[in-house]
């Protein structure tokens, strides 16, 4: 074996081991750079062609090869399986917020509040003033009754904010304590998240 063959074999082995150590995205980026360099070199070779018809055919062939190679690289990148132990839908809890979810008011709260407000408004003034106070009391009472009912029916809500390993972010709402803390590792499961 000549020195050149040995050097080429060592270079290929080092490139293969470096490719295994790279992430799929890094491998894809390296491959696209390599293909772009090759395409530029092919175009230079085509430019040396004297006959314009052959030069144009050479450029078309170079472009076709470049497009095929890029499509193949893209398909391999999209289909690259996750490394063992790697989880595509895993992340970490960045924040857990306890809040209150407003309840929904019904007609009962509006009616009860309106009646109570009208009765109180009817106690004020006389004549047309009493009628205006009754109407104003009914309107104010209806609004207050709706708000009181919403407050009485409100529930606690836990919002868990997640930062995925690939950089995505999402929030999940729970009507019970999910028993998760900031920093916990989680993964997607049936439209929600579970501890990992």
Notes on the protein architecture:
The chain is an alpha+beta fold and 196 residues long. It folds into 3 domains: 3-79; 90-100 and 154-195; 104-152, no CATH class. The protein is 57% helix and 19% strand.
Show the helix and strand layout:
Elements: H1 3-21, H2 24-47, H3 52-79, E1 90-101, H4 107-122, H5 128-152, E2 155-164, E3 169-174, E4 185-189, E5 192-195
Helix pairs in contact: 2-3, 4-5
Organism: Duganella radicis
Signal peptide: 1-21
InterPro entries: Bact_OM_lipoprot/Surf_antigen, Gly_zipper_2TM_dom
Key phrases:
single chain; 196 residues; 3 domains
Number of helices: 5
Q: Report the structural category.
A: alpha+beta
Largest sheet, spatial ordering of strands: 3-2-1-4-5
Q: Helicity, in percent?
A: 55-70%
Strand content is 15-25%
- Cα distance spanning the termini: 53 Å
What characteristic shape results from the CA principal axes? Answer: elongated
- How can the largest sheet be summarized? 5 strands, antiparallel
